[in-house]
Amino acid sequence: MTEHTVISPSESGLPKAPGRLYIISAPSGAGKTTLVRMLVESDPGVHLSISSTTRPPRAGEQQGKEYHFTSEPEFLKMIERGEFLEWAKIYNNYYGTPKSWVETKNREGLDILLEIDWQGARQVRKAFPGAIGIFILPPSIDILKARLIGRGADAKDVIHRRLESARDEMRHVSEFDYVIINDDLSRAFREISLIINASRLQYMTQRQRYAGLFSTLC
Ligand code: 5GP
Question: Is 66 part of any domain?
Fold first, then answer.
């Protein structure tokens, strides 16, 4: 071994560093889905959890890709069986994060991304206090309104309801560790990548990953 040798997790004989859990929340219209897609495509180390939902698929959405689309009776049975790490009812539809998938990936030391609302974020933080919360805000209320209207065929009352629920979501921004203002998509993407890469260098993670090196040096 030379003085420049880095001791890998397997060589240290100790468990790998546990995976990190990232929660990304935002009001509808803040650009969260686009940012998450960019992140997952650019960083193979980040694994996106696929939720179950009772909401019907939108045009272009595929079973098992955006969501596991499920009937309400089946979703309620899944709740009873304890299959969700968290679940919430949003716009009259249920959404839930698969518990066993998250726990398995986490044990394997993989980084997981959850794209969920503030109610789910709260529940996840209880189970995983180290989860890192990132909240995405639109640059202004007018831009948020324009984005919600620009989505197309929605009736006025639907847009009004979305705006109300966006305001409700934004009231919970203080519960998150990081805030990104999405006024420029490339910059917002760079900022999320920075958060994820910086968190990979946190003391506890590095200490577990390079346990051998730490015991030699420190
Ligand atoms: P959409 O129907 O537009 O895809 O999502 C509506 C909202 O549900 C978004 O805020 C999204 O983040 C949230 N959501 C999606 N999956 C989950 C989940 O598994 N749990 C919770 N709590 N929220 C979710």
Answer: no
